[in-house]
Amino acid sequence: MLGLGIDIGAGSIKSGVFDETGTILEETRENTHAKMKNAEFQKAILSSASPLLKKYEVTGIGVGSPGPIDNEKGIIHSSANLPLLDAFPIKEILERETGIQTKLNNDANCASLGEYFFGPGAGSSNLFVFTLGTGLGGGWIQNGFLYNGFQGNGMEVGHTTIIKDGALCGCGKRGCAESYFSATGLMNRYFDRTNQKANSVAEVFQLANDGDSHALDTIYEGTEVLAETARNIVNLLNVDTIVFVGGLIKSWSLFGEHLETRIRSQVFPILADRLKIFHGENQAILGAGSLVLEGMNPNRSKI
Known about the structure:
Layout: E1 2-8, E2 12-19, E3 24-31, H1 38-55, E4 61-65, E5 69-70, E6 75-76, H2 90-98, E7 102-106, H3 107-118, E8 126-132, E9 136-142, E10 145-146, H4 183-194, H5 201-209, H6 213-237, E11 241-245, H7 256-266, H8 269-272, E12 276-279, H9 284-293
Parallel strand pairs: 1-4, 4-7, 8-11, 11-12
Antiparallel strand pairs: 1-2, 2-3, 5-6, 8-9, 9-10
């Protein structure tokens, strides 16, 4: 069985053909930009997928995209990276052009499926995945079923309020988890402390690694908020496994041990004893492609 995963990320479309072991056989990349409208975006999608579809016989296509989306109708609405898209019907277009069944979902939901099928959380009966990147996302899988919420926009864990009347988030509200632990959040909180703008979140982590007290305080505060967010998820959903993925995992050594210790110390003891915590790279193409596999596990049970 071969599937095609398409990841719509910040600035590019990545497509890849994978097999049932999670091995990516070949991938392509097409750049995107903020001024793209539907017609140009359609051309980029097809340019990314067509070379692979001509070479490989795939059974299904999975597409992961930032929200907001409509996963039921297969529509991508405008996003921060593609603000000029207008209800882009990606499912309809790909199925018409390729004749292959296509599924669309939120990129964080896709990441969760990818971890369920191919990552350290594989086979978990109750899995939650946090995506640590430009923003803070999440996805929940229970007994092999992905929780979608309305039109695939559920589990926006980054926009749960952790600090009442706290820092302003990009969503316009205050105190969201994302405004403290995400690339954007960490950079903004560092600016609050220093009135100096970091060029990237990697710079904040490097400053912390070099002993900068403001960077260290920023990461400490963010980790406390992320741990509290995870505590809420564990106590609410009784998950047995948490996996943290995304670009910020590259700096796990600066916050991972503290994060895990705080999570375990704050959740109900009976849950802490069974809780498994992992971190992984998160292969976005496999995450999107996992939509092809969803529903194929005969041992799944209904929620």
